[in-house]
Amino acid sequence: MTIDRSVLLFAGCMVLLSVVLTTYVSGYFVWLTVFIGANLIQSSFTGFCPAAKVFKALGAKEGCAFR
């Protein structure tokens, strides 16, 4: 799996987790969803994504977006 697909999978899982936590634990977990969205937006403009750095360190193959 490439870094690009790993980042997308991780972001999707985190959004779903934050929705579940917001629904069943506390409404404040909506801020996790906001953080994830803001991080996705800034990475689309800057090309910097902390999760991509982690996946690269773990040995994921490079993709088109994150090198």
Automatic annotation (TrEMBL):
Record domain Inner membrane protein YgaP-like transmembrane: where: 2-56
Keywords: Membrane, Transmembrane, Transmembrane helix
Superkingdom of this protein's organism: Bacteria
Pfam family, one: YgaP-like_TM
InterPro entries on file: YgaP-like_TM
Residues passing through the membrane, by range: 7-31
Record flagged with keyword Transmembrane: yes
Protein name per Swiss-Prot or TrEMBL: DUF2892 domain-containing protein
Record organism: Fuscibacter oryzae
